[in-house]
Design goal:
- The protein has helices at about 30, 105-115, 135-140, 170-175, 190-200, 205-215, 225-230, 235-260, 280-295, 325-330, 335-360, 420-430, and strands at about 10-15, 15-20, 45-50, 65, 85-90, 150-155, 160-165, 165-170, 175-180, 180-185, 265, 270-275, 305, 315, 320-325, 365, 370, 375-380, 395-400, 410-420.
- The chain has 2 domains: about 10-40 and about 190-275, no CATH class; about 45-190 and about 300-449, 3-Layer(aba) Sandwich (Alkaline Phosphatase, subunit A).
- It has about 450 residues and is α+β, with helices and mostly antiparallel strands.
- It has 12 helices and 20 strands.
Length: about 450
């Protein structure tokens, strides 16, 4: 079969929709030598995953360093992907400490985690904290993608109101900050994220095509079927198989999103419109994981943040046998039963992170996996929720960063090593070098082995 080189920016288009493609062989130098094209560089992606209220550190911290480190109970779900993970101990978020401002550790933990800056204490006007590391990366990497960054979560954002001892809710519910006073609100509805990623450039056409799909019960792929046939005819057998697998994944995710949401009939046409978000947290989190993977796979964005729960979250987890609020029992006062319940929540969160890593590892990206091309940070701005400690944080770094990180290890650093030193090293690997960030004191060594 004769094949033709195609651009990395090729997308399947229809009325009001645009479905980007994964990396195919037809986009590589072997398919484009006749055009004299330069070999494309596989992009490095970065995601920052946040969990609230710290963790039960005795069940988190490995007892050994180096390769082949042990997996304590909370980290046990990482066993299938342990070789893809780097455990980092000793890192500190100093700017989440009071520094004379009194209580408000949850708001400071959330807002300082990616900014490395101490938030100005206000519950109204005058927000000030700093630009977050994801947005520093997005300012450069976003020039090559449809979306500079993706902000998602399982609990919503607020832009105003008082939340934590005189701190604005904006600090406690937003992880990403485009500027020192401008939070980047996260989207928690999987359906809206799906429409945002695969909708066309015209919002009116999006609404029209969305209504037609709902009325006729069609998939978004039905609207690009003609273009799919055209593009498929230019591909070799291996690329056709890869394209079919990718589109099957898109269709399956679309189906799961529709099934996970309640539906109501609206208007005289009796259009069934999905509303709300999944009631089951596990399904909600995994839908968001799958959307993030698709966004990276199709190179729609190279930077993302994912908030499992806002800091101070009092969500209960009855399916885990934890009917109490998470924040309430995080103040355990060394009560063994409460600590066991906190450990259950922590382990459940790590299970969802392991799911994300597994999905990334299952996707081939050129001569490696999608996870090979990623830097995925997981952590919290609090270590022990009972004392609101911001030192020796629970931090993981997954993915090999295009060969620049040696995973499968646990590395310990001296206490009070700034977390922002890690961010400087991550930015270097993303091709976004800056002299300093937040309260950094230098690059974090030891990531490459």
């Amino acid at each position: 079969m004769k094949t033709w080189p195609i651009s990395r920016r090729t997308a399947l288009r229809g009325i009001g929709v645009s479905v980007a493609l994964p990396l195919l062989e037809a986009m590589t130098p072997a398919r484009s030598n006749a055009l004299g094209a330069n070999p494309p560089t596989a992009p490095t992606r970065a995601a920052f995953v946040y969990v609230s209220n710290g963790v039960h550190m005795p069940a988190w911290t490995p007892t050994t360093t180096g390769s082949g480190f042990d997996l304590p109970p909370i980290l046990a779900p990482l066993k299938p992907v342990r070789d893809e993970v780097l455990g980092l101990s000793g890192l500190t978020l100093d700017k989440a400490r009071a520094h004379g401002d009194g209580n408000g550790d949850h708001a400071r933990a959330m807002s300082a985690f990616l900014t490395g800056s101490h938030p100005r204490k206000t519950n109204g006007a005058g927000l000030r904290v700093g630009i977050s590391v994801d947005q520093v990366a997005a300012a450069k990497l976003g020039q090559a993608t449809r979306f500079p960054s993706l902000e998602v979560g399982c609990e919503g954002s607020k832009s105003d109101g008082a939340c934590d001892h005189g701190y604005s809710c904006a600090y406690q519910t937003n992880l990403s900050w485009r500027g020192e006073s401008t939070p980047a609100a996260k989207e928690i509805d999987p359906r809206l994220v799906f429409e945002w990623l695969f909708g066309g450039p015209n919002p009116n056409e999006n609404d029209t095509s969305r209504g037609r799909r709902a009325r006729d019960r069609k998939s978004i792929l039905d609207f690009v079927s003609e273009d799919t046939t055209r593009v498929r005819g230019t591909l070799g057998v291996a690329d056709q198989r890869k394209l079919d697998e990718y589109l099957t994944g898109v269709r399956e995710l679309e189906r799961r999103i529709a099934q996970a949401q309640p539906a109501v009939e609206v208007g005289q046409a009796k259009i069934t419109k999905p509303v709300g978000i999944p009631a089951d947290f596990r399904e909600h989190a995994r839908l968001m994981c799958d959307l993030l993977v698709l966004a990276f796979q199709a190179d729609l964005t190279r930077v993302a943040t994912f908030v499992f729960a806002n800091d101070g979250s009092n969500r209960s987890y009855p399916t885990l046998g934890v009917p109490e609020g998470h924040h309430d029992i995080s103040h355990h006062d060394r009560d063994a039963k409460k600590q066991q319940k906190i450990q259950k929540i922590n382990t459940f969160h790590v299970e969802q992170f392991a799911y994300l890593l597994g999905k990334l590892k299952a996707v081939m990206d050129g001569d490696g996996t999608l996870l090979d091309r990623c830097l995925i940070l997981y952590g919290s701005g609090i270590s022990d929720g009972d004392t609101h400690n911001h030192g020796d944080l629970p931090i993981l770094l997954a993915g090999r960063g295009n060969g620049t990180v040696k995973t499968g290890r646990h590395v310990g650093y001296p206490r009070e090593t700034p977390l922002t030193n890690l961010y400087l090293s991550m930015l270097d690997r993303l091709g976004v070098s800056v002299d300093a960030f937040g309260d950094s004191t230098g690059r974090l060594g030891g990531l490459a082995g």
